[in-house]
Design a protein that fits this description.
- Helices cover about 45% and strands about 10% of the residues.
- A hairpin with a 6-residue loop joins strand 13 and strand 14.
- It folds into 4 domains: about 170 residues, 3-Layer(aba) Sandwich (Rossmann fold), CATH 3.40.50; about 70 residues, no CATH class; about 70 residues, no CATH class; about 260 residues, Rhodopsin 7-helix transmembrane proteins (Rhopdopsin 7-helix transmembrane proteins), CATH 1.20.1070.10.
- The chain has a 6-stranded mixed beta sheet with strand order 1-5-2-8-9-10, sandwiched between helices.
- About 30% of the residues are buried.
- The chain contains 18 helices and 17 strands.
- Helix 10 runs parallel beside helix 17 and helix 13 runs parallel beside helix 15.
- The chain is α/β, with parallel strands linked by helices and about 600 residues long.
């Protein structure tokens, strides 16, 4: 009985061996009648795709006339059923030795001969390839395997005509050994199949002398569906570390696979398409090529509306897509970022706008009482500049909310860095003014001449200019850019802003921290000023709050996942801004609005306690 074959004639016909079934069921032998032929079972969808990929490649070569002009390639493909016996039988038919016929000798001196095909593609399993390679090697007919990785096949004396596109197990075993050494494991158990692939790999691994359970998977099963789908083995095999073959994208292959259908004109010549279709959709067609000994009546008839677009084994979802619960279609992953419509985004936006409104309210109060002693006591120009910078600090937090883009990622960090340095520079200027004013106690002292309005503006300008230079270099060398984070086995794509340069981000924060520490030190030195003039004490409290917030920010930012890290940064900006506003300006507004009798020079310069 001839084996089922998928054939297309051409000027040059390529042979193909594919294990389209995973096992063979041997029939019962009564020894009274002729035994039936063995039956192949458990259709292998991955190998079917490999077979179709070979057909697709041949059709593409034939379509492109420049590759092989005036030559048409054909193919002759057999199912080896994952058994050496079936593989050898198919190889003999490919070489024209069916029913005992002899292959044609071409050159007696070179021991070369050709059958019906000049080359054989396959088989996938190492055990089958060993048998086929010995047979084809006797006639020097090339065999190119796409998945046989047994190191034994590299012996050119024993297998002179064997080639493969798959690396030898020598490399894989070496990688597994390096993995074991890296984790410093002292005991390793090896489980291998009782075939050429398993025995060869286990022997190589044992020869290396290596001495909860952590599974190390070879490429044969590291990407198997049993590891990625909930099964009874999932609790045992989850967390497996393995090696995988690098995937390649073949343009046009997916569309070619999706066009497969039993109603196509050439489907009747394909003995493997109908069994594939019946296995995928769990139905039976009117005319089936299945073994007559296997009952198909327990399956419903196929409706004809089945579509491979919704099948399980054909299409791998793109990186930004995720399979549905039934694993029948690819759905877009949910894009997650801190948006203005989120509850968290709405809350932070409200708090930021409220802070900017409060700052504007303080500006209005100070403008209405600009001639009063409490406003004039500490350089009203610096006070208004500080209030303006605080308003910008509140508003810059809004740039962290919304869908990240190139401009928003660059704006949010630079705006934050520059506005906060401007704010701290103003506080530093106010602190120095307070210290200078009360150190110059003698009427004839000209100490303030060395730190007048021009010098104050120069300090603020130079301090801010340093941060501007840092941000400019940062944006030029490695600017922040939008980044998509796709956690493994997650249906969510997280949009974030990558800092671009950790050094640049660290310098921005470090410079702000340096100015804050300097300001805190100077304010602490001025703590013994007149009791009713509490400017230095208020600045000290504000800087303590500022430093505490940003010290706590660093570990919280590093440990927060996804959009919550952005929320932590916004919270730090708002908390430190509110701390400055409340500690420095709230007491002044209280005196201006509720205790106007204390808004006098005499009260500000007096002492309530005797030191």
């Amino acid at each position: 009985m001839s084996l089922p074959v998928l054939q297309r004639n051409g000027d040059i016909t390529l042979g193909g061996l594919f294990s389209l079934h995973d096992m063979v069921v041997e029939p019962n032998r009564s020894f009274t009648t002729m035994p039936p032929h063995p039956r192949c079972t458990r259709f292998n969808f991955r190998t079917f795709r490999w077979m179709q990929t070979m057909i697709f490649a041949i059709e593409e070569i034939n379509r492109e006339g420049k590759l092989l002009p005036n030559i048409t390639l054909g193919y002759k493909i057999y199912d080896s059923c994952s058994t050496p016996y079936q593989a050898l039988k198919a190889a003999m038919e490919l070489m024209g030795t069916k029913q005992g016929s002899v292959v044609e000798m071409v050159d007696n001196h070179k021991d070369m001969c050709y059958g019906t095909v000049p080359v054989v593609i396959g088989d996938g399993g190492s055990t089958q390839s060993l048998v086929v390679a010995r047979f084809l090697g006797a006639f020097h007919v090339p065999q190119v395997s796409y998945f046989s990785s047994c190191a034994c096949l590299s012996n050119k004396k024993e297998f002179p005509a064997f080639l493969r596109t798959m690396p030898s197990d020598l490399f894989q075993v070496d990688a597994l050994v390096q993995l074991v050494k890296h984790f410093d494991w002292t005991w390793v158990g090896v489980i291998a199949g009782d075939d050429a692939y398993g025995r060869g790999g286990a022997t190589l691994f044992a020869n290396e002398g290596l001495t909860g359970i952590q599974w190390l998977a070879s490429e044969a099963w590291s990407t198997a569906s049993v590891l990625s789908t909930p099964t009874k083995y999932h609790s045992i095999l989850q967390g497996t570390i393995g090696l995988a073959i690098r995937r390649a994208y073949i343009p046009g292959l997916q569309d070619f696979l999706l066009r497969l259908h039993p109603s196509n004109t050439d489907a009747s010549e394909d003995p493997f398409l109908i069994p594939f279709w019946e296995e995928v959709f769990g139905c039976r067609l009117g005319v089936s090529t299945a073994d007559p000994m296997q009952s198909q009546h327990d399956k419903p008839l196929c409706s004809g509306s089945e579509d491979l677009q919704n099948s399980i084994e054909c299409v791998r979802c793109l990186p930004l897509f995720w399979s549905n619960g039934e694993r029948t279609a690819c759905l877009p992953k949910q894009v997650d970022f801190l948006s203005f419509s989120d509850t968290m985004g709405i809350t932070l936006t409200t708090v930021a706008l409220l802070g900017s409104l409060c700052t504007c309210g303080v500006i209005f109060i100070f403008s209405c009482h600009i001639s009063t002693p409490i406003v004039r006591a500490n350089n009203s120009e610096l006070s208004f500049l500080l209030l303006f910078s605080l308003t910008l600090c509140f508003l810059c937090s809004l740039t962290f909310i919304g869908r990240p883009s190139d401009w928003s990622c660059m704006l949010r960090h630079t705006a934050f860095g520059i506005t906060f340095v401007l704010c701290i520079s103003c506080v530093l200027g106010k602190t120095i003014v307070v210290l200078m004013a009360f150190r110059a106690t003698l009427p004839s002292s000209n100490l303030m001449k060395w730190f007048g309005a021009m010098q104050q503006r120069a300090i603020i300008t130079l301090s801010t200019l340093v941060q501007v230079i840092i941000c400019t270099v940062w944006l030029t060398v490695a600017p922040p850019t939008p980044q998509k984070l796709m956690p493994r086995e997650s249906a969510i794509v997280i949009l974030l802003c990558d800092e671009g340069s950790a050094l640049g981000f660290g310098l921005v924060l470090g410079y702000i921290g340096l100015l804050a520490c300097l300001c805190l030190l100077l304010a602490f030195l001025g703590r013994k000023l007149p009791d009713n003039f509490n400017e230095a004490k208020f600045i000290t409290f504000s800087m303590l709050i500022f430093c505490a917030v940003w010290v706590a920010f660093i570990p919280a930012y590093i440990s927060s996942p996804g959009k919550y890290s952005v929320a932590v940064e916004i919270f730090a900006i708002l908390a430190s801004s509110y701390g400055l506003l409340a500690c420095i300006f709230a007491p002044k507004c209280y005196i201006i609005l509720l205790r106007p009798e204390k808004n006098s020079r005499k009260h500000l310069m007096s002492k309530t306690n005797v030191q």
